[in-house]
Task: inverse folding
């Protein structure tokens, strides 16, 4: 009866077998002149696709820049970027394919810790260095992978430290006395805000409200209403994107403007934030940033110019994910320049020592891939996002207290 | 000896619409009792109450001396009360044989046994032969004609060796030859000691087959008696012609 | 039911033999990885079929049990160290059994509702599971996710233990399906699917077989969840309780053919391989979703009963026979 | 707490509107429309586009978006649902409408990319202070609009010939056919109406929340809970279900903790189903509009 179906299954299996066996034996890199193929799986569809595309632009921009200058050690850089649809299953398949089927020379990381962990383990298994522009959550570093390097100034959780330092730098009578914490339940935002809370409590800032909210919460009004009723001096929010916008909108509707408003993410998006919350409502809001328009860090000016040339827009319209991805490439270029070699072993051993200048500042890594620098504090002033702390990078002095909504 | 089935003062309404109003009925052992009445008089509702598919609002149902007012259909089926449906509910994707086997009832232990074992097949084959379904025994019921499906459902209820069978319009929509076949089977089984309660529209069939006849109108029992008396009874004429 | 004796077992033996020896031919890692994921879905589709296919209760919440299985492995690793790396596999039967028991009261409530409402109630299960995974931080790690120590298998044969475990589970799942089809459980389930009230009325043990199908089905699903978590090395509520996994099980079963032995497996091999391959090679064109949806629609509209039944029908058209879980009777067409 | 209840009630209006379309479709055709959420999002995108390209206010755009979505709904019914066989239509329709949802998601992600969008009109952040409580203007308008739309739907079903035909087919498809009701036509128009309510709700939804092409997953799970809670096929039930769910969610979020808010309505739903498997206002065999 359905002998045919059985046959189909067998034939399929046999086909798979043969294609599997006949996959190229592959030459293990090293020939000068052959292109340097770099593989990365990026979320071009699905939940993380926005940042995924920004990451793709950053990688591409770096590759173009390097190739225009003759490539790396004479080898043209060739990117192979595939989509993981924001799926942890697909990301594993993709890195397997990149490493074992397409035999890429190097791998770059995907977007988000959630995908980076399974992906980095695949890379580790085959001895590939894994440089990722995203994936700075605590769980990532708990993996203790020696091939992993998080290309940002500090682990995400510590990106609020700069804000704490800023508060502590204020004279005692100008510090906020009370603070409310609204924390998005995801691998970064909530731990980040918790980290800030612990440090501020230790410094004597009283916590009057603390609440974690799930990521699918569309309506933050109930929570912001509860916060507004307590009238805290500071609102410290561990946010991602949309929730940051919603928080501000709710506060505007509730007619409550705290004297300090810190949002860990979203508010540092130069184009979207004013677009979503209204330009008049951005004034005085604080946020951490690694790269910002007008940064004086190494390569930043070139990057900005190249970005605008290739993708249009202004410096203000560049997503910092692109800058972070670009920095990943910068690190690779630097390794090649210093060691005159470009293989995974060299990359791994080199990066565990010394410091590496990038457009995000100078980076160095501990054994588990955690960077040991610090973020910058940026603030919205007159419609522009300006670094205000620490003084070494500040382009303006911090505005405090935050003015009322609408300017 | 007590009657096989006693329905005593059963009422049931749907929302504000009464379907049965204090209806009573008795089925004597080894009778072929007809239940007739105009459309919407509550015949099918009464069937459903008797078989436990519907719960009565008030009143009692006794079967074989036991109060079964709140019994579930499965329990009644195991006690020997089975029924057919007006639209012949058979399992369309099961074969004729399987339709019979599944109606045969089996315990937990047998659940893990073969789908159709030798004993099942033996019992089913007897019925298949009796009902002349041999040619289609291995076909899914969906392939049968309407009349064949009615026969199949009738045959299936016999698998559980019932004492009382409720037939809901056994001859509706089938050809004259099949009506005769149905009558033949009912007589044959009656002779073998099975009691019938039949809802039937075809008065000729009722006259030939049944005694007594119970007439239901607007949810009430209005007449019980021999078939000859039905036609002359004023209340019955009223019910059929008047309303 | 007179089946053509021998053909079924021979086909199964060949299939599993090919599966079992395939890795010894030195399949590339990328291919083994794809096969591992494909086998996961084959088992899950086959398990889903036991409930959704045979009973006709379309569960859209099976991934809730997948997630429970995944977190069970995580929990186990919180209290135990890894040594040989095989421990999670040995743990699987316990997970399957445990989740089957957990499923029992859930099934008893959910199966009070019928087809469409049941589908929705099971969706609810999925979200309850996800919310619990997010919020029971002490157990699950919440939104931080939970990581598992990577298996200490050598890189050369890293996928093999996972692969072998999955082949065994597929054999178990298909074996159970086969046994169901041949036993009165299958007969009863078919009756439930076609007319549950009538079946209950004639004394079919409706409740028993429904609950049985549900528990076995979710138990198998949970075991796959456990393997998946171990293979991924890191789980996160949104991934462990991903509605798309539920949808995939349903889709594969429908594609291959409901209430058939081979249909769900065929569906899984086609869909999962195609999906993994195209997402990789087409590099995330946004038309991917549209293409997927269109294939889905065309399959349902053109072959509403799935590939296997439709193909069989076409081959045996002169028999004009409908095959669902009733195997085709032998012989030539009706007389 | 009070703020929570106010919010809950205002939000319930929008959900009631979406859910009424869903339940109407089920009532007429016994089809659980998994694409209702995607249709709402499509409605939101349409009014987003009208707003950004032509500056049309989302509230004023509603007649246009509902008209477009009505057509989409009719098309979906005619192309994808009508060919299904009667026997397993319920099961298959769940899958077909889910596939339609995926299809719409794919189309939306191609047309508008996958990034979040929101409609920012000048008044989006305005609010009134009433007795010390803040009432967002948009939400109030959204609520009123939903009431009007539900009112229109009610009138349509109660006072027109089409409405009578619809109710007849909900009550008893067989007798409706005997009465000369063209079931296919009613189904097409019914699905169109369901899609139209989704469009109206979508315009409002876009004003209240940010959305992207994948937003429909969260939405559909809530809509399904609402209609099952209220009883499939009952519009009154959909309204009550929306109230129960959004008020309980908002109250739990503001008084207790937002992390348990999503759990709230699932718990409410499951406990209701334990007692009444057919929902609050569901009836056994017949639907009720």
Result:
């Amino acid at each position: 009866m359905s002998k045919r179906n059985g046959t189909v299954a067998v034939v399929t299996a046999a086909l798979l077998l043969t294609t599997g066996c006949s996959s190229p034996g592959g030459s293990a890199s090293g020939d000068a002149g052959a292109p340097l193929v770099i593989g990365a799986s990026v979320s071009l569809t699905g939940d993380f696709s926005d940042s995924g595309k920004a990451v793709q632009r950053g990688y591409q921009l770096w590759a173009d820049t390097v190739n225009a200058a003759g490539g790396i050690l004479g080898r043209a850089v060739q990117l192979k970027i595939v989509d993981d649809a924001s799926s942890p299953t697909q990301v594993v398949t993709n890195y397997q394919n990149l490493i074992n089927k397409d035999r890429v020379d190097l791998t770059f990381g995907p977007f988000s810790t959630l995908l980076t962990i399974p992906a980095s383990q695949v890379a580790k298994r085959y001895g590939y260095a894994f440089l990722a522009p995203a994936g700075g959550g605590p769980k990532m570093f708990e993996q203790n992978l020696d091939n992993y390097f998080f290309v940002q100034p500090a682990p995400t959780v510590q990106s609020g430290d700069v804000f704490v330092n800023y508060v502590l730098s204020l004279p005692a009578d100008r510090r906020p006395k009370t603070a409310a914490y609204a924390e998005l339940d995801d691998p970064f935002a909530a731990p980040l805000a918790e980290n800030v809370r612990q440090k501020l409590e230790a410094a004597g800032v009283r916590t009057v409200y603390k609440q974690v909210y799930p990521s699918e919460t569309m309506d933050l009004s109930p929570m912001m209403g509860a916060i507004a009723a307590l009238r805290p001096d500071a609102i410290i929010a561990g946010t991602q994107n949309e929730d940051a916008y919603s928080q501000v909108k709710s506060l505007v509707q509730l007619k409550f403007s705290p004297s300090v408003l810190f949002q860990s993410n979203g508010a540092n998006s130069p184009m979207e934030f004013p677009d979503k919350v209204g330009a008049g409502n951005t004034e005085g809001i604080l946020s951490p940033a690694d790269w910002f328009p007008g940064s004086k860090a190494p390569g930043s000016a070139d990057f900005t110019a190249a970005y605008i040339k290739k993708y249009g827009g202004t410096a203000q319209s560049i997503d910092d994910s692109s800058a972070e991805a670009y920095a990943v490439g910068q690190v690779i270029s630097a390794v090649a320049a210093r060691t005159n070699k470009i293989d995974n072993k060299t990359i791994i051993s080199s990066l565990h020592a010394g410091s590496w200048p990038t457009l995000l500042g100078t980076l160095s890594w501990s054994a588990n891939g955690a960077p040991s620098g610090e973020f910058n504090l940026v603030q919205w002033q007159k419609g522009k996002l300006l670094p205000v702390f620490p003084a070494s990078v500040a382009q303006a002095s911090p505005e405090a207290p935050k003015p009322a909504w609408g300017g | 000896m007590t009657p096989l089935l006693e329905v005593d003062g059963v009422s049931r309404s749907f929302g504000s619409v009464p379907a049965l109003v204090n209806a009573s009925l008795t089925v004597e052992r080894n009778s072929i009792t007809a239940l007739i009445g105009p459309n919407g008089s509550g015949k099918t509702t009464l069937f459903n109450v008797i078989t436990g598919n519907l719960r009565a609002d008030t009143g009692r149902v006794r079967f074989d001396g036991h109060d079964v007012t709140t019994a579930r259909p499965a329990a009644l089926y195991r006690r020997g009360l089975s029924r057919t449906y007006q639209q012949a509910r058979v399992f369309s994707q099961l074969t004729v044989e399987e339709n019979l086997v599944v109606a045969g009832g089996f315990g937990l232990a047998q659940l893990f046994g073969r789908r159709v074992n030798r004993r099942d097949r033996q019992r089913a084959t007897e019925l298949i032969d009796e009902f002349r379904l041999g040619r289609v025994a291995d076909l899914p019921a969906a392939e049968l004609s309407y009349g064949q499906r009615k026969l199949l459902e009738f045959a299936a209820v016999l698998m559980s060796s019932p004492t009382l069978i409720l037939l809901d319009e056994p001859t509706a929509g089938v050809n004259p030859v099949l009506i005769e076949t149905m009558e033949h089977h009912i007589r044959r089984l009656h002779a073998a000691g099975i009691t019938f309660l039949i809802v039937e529209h075809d008065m000729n069939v009722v006259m030939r087959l049944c005694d007594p006849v119970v007439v239901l109108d607007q949810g009430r029992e209005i007449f019980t008696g021999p078939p000859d008396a039905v036609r002359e009874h004023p209340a019955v004429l009223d019910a059929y012609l008047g309303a | 039911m007179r089946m053509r004796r021998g053909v079924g077992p021979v086909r199964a033996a060949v299939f599993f033999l090919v599966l079992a020896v395939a890795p010894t031919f030195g399949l590339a890692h990328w291919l083994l990885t794809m096969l591992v994921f494909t086998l996961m879905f084959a088992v899950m589709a086959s398990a889903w079929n036991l409930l959704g296919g045979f009973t006709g209760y379309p569960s859209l919440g099976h991934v809730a049990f997948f997630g429970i299985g995944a977190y069970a492995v995580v929990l186990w690793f919180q209290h135990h160290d890894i040594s040989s790396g095989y421990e999670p596999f040995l743990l699987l039967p316990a997970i399957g059994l445990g989740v089957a028991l957990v499923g029992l009261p859930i099934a008893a409530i959910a199966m009070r509702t019928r087809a469409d409402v049941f589908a929705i109630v099971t969706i609810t299960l999925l979200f309850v599971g996800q919310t619990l995974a997010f919020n029971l931080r002490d157990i699950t790690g919440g939104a931080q996710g939970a990581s598992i120590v990577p298996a200490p298998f050598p890189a050369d044969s890293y996928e093999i233990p996972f692969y072998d475990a999955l082949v065994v589970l597929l054999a178990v799942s298909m074996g159970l399906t086969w046994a169901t089809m041949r036993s009165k459980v299958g007969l009863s389930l078919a009756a439930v699917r076609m007319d549950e009230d009538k079946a209950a009325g004639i004394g079919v043990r409706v409740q028993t077989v429904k609950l049985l199908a549900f528990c076995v089905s979710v138990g198998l699903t949970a075991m796959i969840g456990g393997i998946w978590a171990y293979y991924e090395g890191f789980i996160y509520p949104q991934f462990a309780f991903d509605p798309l996994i539920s949808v995939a099980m349903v889709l594969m079963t429908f594609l291959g053919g409901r209430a058939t032995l081979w249909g769900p497996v065929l569906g899984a091999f086609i869909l999962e391989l195609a999906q993994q391959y195209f997402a990789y090679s087409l590099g995330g064109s946004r038309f991917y979703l549209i293409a997927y949806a269109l294939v889905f629609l065309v399959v349902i509209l053109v072959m509403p009963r799935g590939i296997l039944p439709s193909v069989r029908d076409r081959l045996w058209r002169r028999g004009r026979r409908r095959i669902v879980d009733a195997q085709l009777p032998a012989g030539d067409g009706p007389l | 707490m009070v703020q929570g209840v106010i919010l809950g009630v205002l939000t319930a209006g929008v959900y009631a509107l979406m859910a009424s379309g869903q339940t109407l479709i089920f009532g007429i055709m016994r089809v659980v429309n998994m694409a209702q959420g995607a249709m709402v999002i499509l409605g939101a995108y349409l009014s987003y586009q009208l707003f950004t390209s032509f500056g049309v206010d989302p509230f004023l755009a509603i007649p246009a978006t509902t008209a477009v979505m009505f057509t989409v709904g009719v098309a979906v019914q005619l192309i994808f649902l009508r060919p299904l066989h009667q026997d397993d239509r319920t099961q298959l329709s769940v899958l077909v409408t889910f596939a339609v949802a995926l299809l719409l998601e794919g189309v939306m992600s191609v047309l508008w990319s996958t990034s979040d969008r929101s409609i920012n009109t000048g008044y989006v952040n305005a609010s009134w202070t009433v007795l010390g409580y803040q009432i967002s203007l948009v939400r109030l308008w959204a609520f009123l609009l939903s009431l009007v739309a539900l009112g229109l739907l009610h009138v349509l079903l109660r006072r027109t010939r089409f409405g009578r035909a619809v109710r007849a087919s909900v009550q008893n498809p067989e007798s409706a056919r005997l009465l000369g009701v063209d079931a296919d036509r009613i189904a097409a128009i019914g699905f169109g109406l369901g899609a139209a309510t989704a469009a109206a709700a979508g315009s409002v939804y876009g004003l209240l929340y940010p959305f992207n092409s994948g937003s429909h997953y969260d939405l559909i799970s809530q809509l399904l809970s609402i209609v099952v809670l209220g009883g499939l096929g009952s519009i009154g039930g959909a309204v009550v279900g929306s109230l129960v769910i959004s008020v309980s969610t908002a109250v739990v979020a503001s008084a207790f903790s937002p992390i348990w808010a999503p759990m709230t309505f699932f718990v409410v739903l499951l406990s209701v189903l334990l007692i009444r498997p057919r929902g609050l206002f569901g009836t056994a065999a017949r639907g009720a509009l």
Q: What stands out?
A: The beta strands of chain B are 5-14, 17-27, 32-36, 58-63, 66-67, 81-83, 164-168, 195-199, 213-217, 220-225. Residues 176-191 of chain B form the longest helix (16 residues). The first strand of chain B starts at residue 5 and ends at 14.
